[in-house]
Task: structure prediction
Amino acid sequence: MLNRMEQDVFREIGNIGAAHAATALSTLLGQPVEIEVPSADLEGFSTIIERVGGAETYTAGALLRFSGDIKASLLFLMPLKDAEKLVSQLLQQPFQFFSEHHALGVSAWEEIGNILIGAYARSISDWLDLSVHVTVPASAFDMVGAILEVALLESTKFGNMAVYIDTRLSSSGNDLNGHLLLLPEEGAFDSVFQRLGVDIDG
Result:
């Protein structure tokens, strides 16, 4: 578990990223978008899987890796039905993944995912005054368990755990659930915590 000060840092990162993402998504969709971050904490993958709906729940994912002053990965997950609602808004027509228009929806989701996790990456860089280099986000559409297996291949500080940032979106009357996972490499945030006066041993 993270201590209270570490939780506050990651929740603040989540809040700043949410504000950036909401503004960018509102512009993209042409409609107001609100994003809330109720909590941020260190969670085991088994708990995260249950929060997302179970290992066999189909999910849309977007993964971004960054390097520089810190090395980590960001993985954003959204239940497939919720992702379809967002994509439908962008395409301005009803949409379902794995249909004849799947490729069009994948392209739209990649644009949405780029905005969402790109905003969180920028919030980490800007708020913490870090030099961060990001990759182009990769998308995935699979069961939660399969997507997290890929995330486990990354060398992380917490093993089969991740900093879980609960993310709730609202747009056009749709209440959507998102799940942002931050997977830092060993010692990635130690200097950041020290700079902020956070007791990393507390």
Observations:
- Residues 42 and 163 are 4 Å apart (CA to CA).
- Residues 4-29 form the longest helix (26 residues).
